[in-house]
Amino acid sequence: MKYCLLFCLTLFVTPMVFAQETIAYKSVVDSLYREDQFYLGVTYNLLNNKPLGVSQNSFSSGIHFGIIRDMPINARRNKAIGVGLGVSLNAYNHNLLISKTNNSTTFSVLDNNDTDYSKNKFYTYVIELPIEFRWRTSTPTEYDFWRIYTGFKLGYQFANDTKYKGSPEDFRLNNVDAFNELQYGLTLSAGYITWNFHLYYGLNTLFDNAKINNENLNVSEIKIGIMFYIL
Asked: I need a labelling partner for 10 at 20 to 30 A (CA). Which of 27, 101, 135, 147 fits?
């Protein structure tokens, strides 16, 4: 009888203890929450300020990923400064031929009517430092929210390469010194929950002291796409 009473008491008391712990757990609100996030972006890449005759063909894409540290700056914590670190991989399809002549990098425009080629593109690989001013409608208990993040992105291009397939012969160049290693521009991300529109507008040229037909090649980057933020 004694063991039966003890068993019954355990059956009733144990759920009550766990229930109290669950209620206590749910009642705890993280008033110092942050929106530290991993980000993953996919963009369509455009060449801005193209010289006469230069055009893009096919699809030029970019993949961007990294992490951002969130630092709230007001009591409500819906405004913050975000500082991150990431990597960007970019590809551009175009008719701007980048080649080597007497150990010197030269630029010329491929005539689609006179030149038979199947591929002409370059790739850039960039380490990025995004800095953002972040506004959102999130709260410590609300995870579905609107956001607008504006900022500045500094990039270091640690590698690049070009590919050409066509007449008179195929060739590939690695780490062309005519590319500008330092890249920077303005950014905007806006959206709801995970899905966000993203824009990057480059403020400096993609190439360093490059010329085409004796004119400066002042091409810069514009990237338009989607950014995913993941906690």
From this structure: 27
Residue 192's region, left for phi above 0, alpha for psi from -120 to 50, else beta, is: beta
Q: Tell me which residue has tokens 């810069």.
A: 220
The total number of residues written for the chain in this structure: 231
Place of tokens 């009473």: 5
User: Taking the model in full, what pTM does it have?
Assistant: 0.84
Q: What pLDDT digit, counting tens, does each position of 53-88 carry?
A: 899 988 999 999 999 999 999 999 999 999 999 999
